[in-house]
Design brief:
The complex is a heterodimer of chains A (187) and B (423). In chain A, 21% of the residues lie in helices and 23% in strands. Chain A is an alpha+beta fold and 187 residues long. The longest helix of chain A has 26 residues, at 19-44. The termini of chain A are far apart. Chain B has a two-stranded antiparallel ribbon. Chain B is mostly helical and 423 residues long. Chain B has two domains: 40-274, Cytochrome Bc1 Complex, Chain C (Up-down Bundle); 294-403. The chains are: A alpha+beta (187), B mainly alpha (423).
Chain lengths: 187, 423
């Protein structure tokens, strides 16, 4: 809508801006805001519902897990490996030089101080999301004595760090806290 | 489609020209709801209800698809999954209340749309197919609405399914087998719930398909108008866009305001509280009623309490209820008055308002318990419904002397022309 002579156009200012232009912009903006507000609930409903979000924490009793054993628990629909590592295994892990690691991280940074034997990681391979073996008795633990993902052959060590295979990162350590010396709350 | 003075679509840019030669979709929009579709210039606000029906069809499909993402069609969990939508799903309460009230609003605007057609004679030649497709849409809406009401698996859902499928058991000889076929079991249970969910998801798209045919059929002769006379020339029309797009949008804003009042402040006003009680096959609610939009036909169903002419009362009721809707298919031929608009038909106009009052009375009785005096009132009101369409309308069409029609749509509104005839 070009205006040939702005000073002659009704309702126009000396800058050539008409009142109608202003109305167009304001009403267009109002419609856009209204459309966004109307779309919001329809997009938001796809996010986790309140009952799904309520699954966000899980309490795990560690007392039955003997040294050298591991258990799998479900947290937010995903497996979590809780591993009670023998003294020697912890020592071996702390002896590993960071330069050997694909995703360099100290064992001390992957456990909680004072509870160094407890390794808590997600049981989700960082390659494409399979569940690695090695938590249950009799499962292969891979070449580095931790976990082994059978899908594409990723080997994790006893600190859950990636050592060999296609996975790019160490097994993720979820947020957790010791509620008592023998119980943790994940999430 | 359209009149010869319709503005032709001319691609403005190279891209539009390129697209127009391959997929003339902009041309289609231009010719059907754009500047290239001339519409009578005297359409009043009663003509808004067609586009409003389209609006609520879209509301129902969009909210319905979302609800189906969270709903579980199994009798063990259906009720709980609806409560989960209400309490846990983000904005689930809003989307479900939009869907529940959207159904009522869809019927409200469609009822106004139908009554507008009755008043202004929009069902008459050359718009018979348009009218028939409209009745098809209405029947599909009733089926869809009924099956949707079953899904929450509350008491009214369950017993509504029982009663409505029970209608088919009135058919002689094969009735019980048909009811069993519909339910997929000799009782209302999971097979019926699953089937109704599948069909409730399917039918709205069938409705959308018939709506396209309905609009196509509309575009052949073009819209009727409050005077009910044919468009004579360019002076009688305005381009659909921007005149009626703007007017329709005005109606959309008004409708959404009223809709919002219900969704946010009266979300359960149009529903029945018993449907918040989980379905119980061992206990029928004391007073079972369908949704309000079925009340007039429910009253006709219940009006038959005697066996006569060798036909049981149950079958009479079912036949009458279906006949009440199906006779609308024949209305274009029952009323062969050449004058369309009730503005120029003094007797028909009174009959129209009597019919509206009769439908209101039937609706009132349909919501009331099946006891006196409502049964007796329903009987007279149901009888009048059929007398209106089958006797009074055909007779009045032959005997009534219409008022003189204006020469054209533009004549009564242009200065110096004869004054518009009084209402």
């Amino acid at each position: 809508m070009a205006i040939a002579d702005s000073s002659a156009a009704p309702g126009s200012t000396e800058h050539g801006v008409r009142r109608r232009d202003f109305i167009h912009i304001v009403s267009g903006g109002f419609v856009a805001a209204g459309a966004a507000a109307a779309a919001w609930p329809f997009i938001s409903q796809m996010n986790p519902a309140a009952d799904t979000r309520a699954l966000s924490t899980v309490e795990v009793d560690l007392a039955p897990v003997a040294s050298g054993q591991a258990i799998k628990v479900m947290w937010q629909g995903k497996p979590v490996f809780v591993r009670n590592r023998p003294e020697a295994e912890v020592k071996a892990m702390r002896a590993v030089s960071l330069s050997e690691l694909r995703d360099p991280q100290k064992d001390e940074d992957r456990v909680q101080a004072g509870h160094d034997n407890w390794l808590v990681t997600l049981g989700v391979c960082t390659h494409l999301g399979c569940v690695p073996l090695g938590a249950a008795q009799g499962e292969p633990k891979g070449e580095y004595g931790g976990y082994f993902c059978p899908c594409h052959g990723s080997h994790y060590d006893a600190s859950g760090r990636i050592r060999k295979g296609p996975a790019p990162k160490n097994l993720e350590v979820p947020t957790y806290a010791f509620k008592t010396p023998t119980a943790i709350v994940i999430g | 489609m359209g009149f010869h003075w319709a503005k032709k679509y001319e691609p403005q840019s190279g891209l539009e020209k390129w697209l127009d030669e391959r997929l003339p979709i902009i041309r289609l929009v231009h010719d059907s709801v754009g500047a290239g579709y001339p519409a009578p210039k005297n359409l009043n606000y009663w003509w808004n209800f067609g586009s409003l029906a389209g609006l609520f069809l879209v509301v129902q499909i969009v909210t319905g698809i979302v609800l189906a993402m969270h709903y579980a069609a199994n009798q063990a969990v259906a009720f709980d999954s609806v409560e989960r939508i209400m309490r846990d799903v983000n904005f689930g309460w809003l989307i479900r209340y939009m869907h529940a009230n959207g159904a009522s609003f869809f019927f409200i605007v469609v009822y106004v749309h139908i009554l507008r057609g009755l008043y202004y004679g929009s069902y008459k030649a050359p718009r018979e197919m348009l009218w028939i497709l409209g009745v098809v849409i209405y029947l599909l809406m009733m089926a869809t609405g009924f099956m949707g009401y079953v899904l929450p698996w509350g008491q009214m859902s369950f017993w509504g399914a029982q009663v409505i499928t029970g209608l088919f058991s009135a058919i002689p000889v094969v009735g019980d087998d048909i009811q069993t076929l519909l339910l997929g079991a000799p009782f209302v249970g999971n097979p019926a719930l699953n089937k109704f969910f599948s069909l409730h998801y399917l039918l709205p798209f069938v409705i959308a398909g018939v709506v396209i045919l309905h609009i196509w059929a509309l575009h052949i002769p073009g819209s009727n108008n409050p005077l009910g006379i044919d468009v004579k020339g360019p002076a009688d029309t305005v381009p659909f866009h921007p005149y009626y797009t703007a007017k329709d949008l005005m109606g959309v804003v008004a409708a959404l305001i009223v809709f919002s009042i219900f969704v946010f402040f009266l979300p359960n006003a149009l529903g029945h509280p018993d449907n918040y009680i989980p379905a119980d096959p061992l206990s029928t609610p004391a007073h079972i009623v369908p949704e309000w939009y079925y009340w007039p036909f429910y009253a006709i169903l219940r009006a038959f309490t005697y066996d006569f002419l060798g036909v049981p009362a149950k079958l009479w009721g079912v036949l009458a209820m279906f006949a009440a809707i199906l006779l609308l298919f024949f209305l274009p031929w029952l009323d062969d008055s050449k004058t369309r608009s009730a503005r120029f038909r003094p007797v028909y106009k009174q009959l129209f308002w009597l019919l509206v009052a009769d439908l209101a009375l039937l609706g009132y009785c349909g919501a009331a318990p099946a006891e006196e005096p409502y049964v007796r009132i329903s009987q007279f009101a149901a009888a009048y419904y059929f007398i209106h369409f089958l006797i009074l309308v055909p007779i009045v069409a032959r005997l009534e002397t219409p008022k003189p029609l204006p020469k054209s749509i533009s004549e009564p509104v242009l200065p110096g022309a004869a004054a518009q005839p009084a209402e």
